[in-house]
Design goal:
Layout lengths: L2 H25 L1 H14 L1 H24 L1 H6 L2 H43 L1 H18 L4 H23 L2 H30 L1 H15 L2 H42 L5 H11 L6 H16 L1 H26 L8 H44 L6
Length: 380
Amino acid sequence: MNHPDYQKVKTGILIAAFTVLFYLGLQHIDVVMQGGQFVLSLFSPFLIGICFAFVLNLLMRLYTDRVFAGLNRKNHPKWNKLRKPVCIILTVLTFLGILTALIAFIIPQLMDSVTTLGSNLSGYLRDLETFANRFLTKWGFSTSINQGITDFLTRFSDNLVQYLSSAVPAIFQTTVNVTSAILNLFLGFVISIYILASRDKLLRNLKEITYAVLPPKGAAYAQEVAVLANARFSGFVSGQLTEAVILGVLCFLGMSLFGMEYALLISMIIGLTNVIPIFGPIIGTIPGALILLMVEPMKAVWFVIFIVVLQQIESNLIYPRVVGGSIGLPGIWVMFSVLIGGSLFGLPGVLLGVPTFAVIYTLIARAVKKRLHEKKIVLR
């Protein structure tokens, strides 16, 4: 058998084996998902470390490329040797400083808001009941509806108290899970520092493995995909985080200006949920409106109107400037990637689905343009 025939047979065998494995995986998708969850839990500190390193690398690049740009241009040998450790130390100190500021200034106020909300919950429910009765009576609804709403609020309050009193096992399990998560986060943070310190060496090792395993053209294409993926993910993560901070600050300023209660708590919810594309603003608005609904129903209405206006400003002014074309994905495909990613992998799929599909979309677009160019087809 000559070499071309051998390559064709080898390719056919590989395709057949992949098809069989893919079919078996679909037939036993539950086993595959359980195995995937086990592997993820086993390597979760390393995966968290990679995510930490990716985010910290954005901050580190700010120091290496912007803050110390003047020293870099001088190309001094001593500075070239000290540049990486200095930037890593400054990156870690900056991150810890931001975290300390959050814990020292924002967390106590959030705890006070949550404590106040919990202690005043029964009074808020009574006020809401009074408002509902007055509203229904004004518009001529029957007393049976009023009584139904009263019974519902009473049952809701009783069930909430009963749940809290019988939730000791759940609280214990939650405490265990939170402790495990904190430990994994700490280990992941330590691992991320090692990754940043040996980033160049790790990238070189990956490049060597790629060229050793794949043919030259395949290795070059894999490297091109890696560069594209890094650009898309970096643009998405930095853009979404910046946008979330801007929106949270604007929400806090607006709520404080209009005298709305729990401004910091609700603004934190709005900012955090805005990291989720498309559905994040909706998810964040619901708990904020419910909190204000119990305090004063009309303020909840004004809050929803305020958030709608703020989201329009965010969608038309902030998002295009902050995130802009870094994703390179049309709006319809953003929604598609969020829905598919969320269906398959839950919240991680929602968060990572957009940049992942942006990479796929860009590769397909490039391949299509290349084929059209080879066929000398020009579409207008």
